[in-house]
Amino acid sequence: MDFYKKTIWISGAASGMGKAVALALAPEQTTLILSDRDTEGLKETTKKATKKGAHVVPITLDMSDSKAIYKSAEDVIAKGYKINALYHFAGISQRSLVSETPIENDRKIMEINFFGVVALTKAILPHMIENNGGQLAAASSLVGKFGFPYRSAYSASKHALHGFFESVLTENYKHNIRISMLIGGRIHTNISKFAIDKSGKEHGQMDPGQANGISPEKAAKQILRGLRKEKLEIPVGGKELLILKIKRFFPNWHSKLVRKINPM
Fold it and tell me: Where would you tag: which of 86, 90, 146, 251 has the fewest CB atoms within 10 A of its CB?
């Protein structure tokens, strides 16, 4: 993947990894279609990316609103933009036990993390196929590879993304569609602050894992390095990524280890 002068849609671009990736791509003279529900944060990313050399199209977009997602995609395509890549970073996490989490919370998380991503992908995929291919990437997580305490719905939503995008790839590889799953570890973003608790309210504090994680800027470098190589899975983080190998080669030990980790 050569980013130079490409048109790239990035969701969740107002903060965190989405913002960092957008700013890292800006010097490539890219056209960046940036979406997020946080209008003010989106304005800041737009301003900074523009200064770095990008042409930016900001779109305020709620990933739980499928109709708005399809409408936004139609509008962008109607304006003549040829979308070369779509990178999904928008999402919401969770901090509550399975036994105390109302089903409404599970549905909310799945609506944003899974169905919103699916909707935007389906809205853009035919356009990419018509234009001889493109690159799709989605932010998963370490807990998209295994279950973890207090993250049941979040983990399930990320697991679901793997199944969905593997199917997209098998169906569309012949159309030059390429897929990358971003396996995020501990990254210093606000995802834990905005995670919802059992009552559906924001968790409101940063977990030690995020507080001690790598910066979004370092994460962006890892992500773009992997995207350039069109890697199917791109681990993003620090030493904690070792747990992926433990899961693969020592599953019983991994299960015991996860039960002992402080999830908060």
Answer: 251
Which one-letter amino acid corresponds to residue 84?
Answer: N
- For residue 8, the one-letter residue type is I
Confidence of residue 261 (pLDDT cuts 50, 70, 90): confident
Which CATH number fits the domain 7-260, given the four candidates 3.40.50.720, 2.60.120.260, 3.30.300.30, 3.40.30.10? 3.40.50.720
Task: State how far the Cα of 41 lies from the Cα of 32, in Å rounded to an integer.
Answer: 15
**Mean pLDDT confidence for 117-137:** 98
Judge contact between 169 and 125, C-beta under 8 A.
Answer: no
Considering only CA atoms, which of 118, 234, 116, 259 is closest in space to residue 181?
Answer: 234
Residues whose CB falls within 8 Å of the CB of residue 73, separated by 6 or more in sequence, listed in order: 120, 123, 124, 127
Contact 150/100 with Cβ under 8 angstroms?
A: no
The residue from 4, 81, 150, 154 that is catalytic is 154
34 is written with which tokens? Answer: 């940036």
Q: 186-202: per-residue pLDDT in tens?
A: 999 989 988 999 999 98
User: Does the predicted model carry a pTM greater than 0.70?
Assistant: yes
Estimate to the nearest angstrom the gap between the alpha carbon of 136 and the chain centroid.
11
Instruction: Locate the domains of the chain by residue range.
Output: 7-260
Confirm whether 87 is a catalytic residue: no
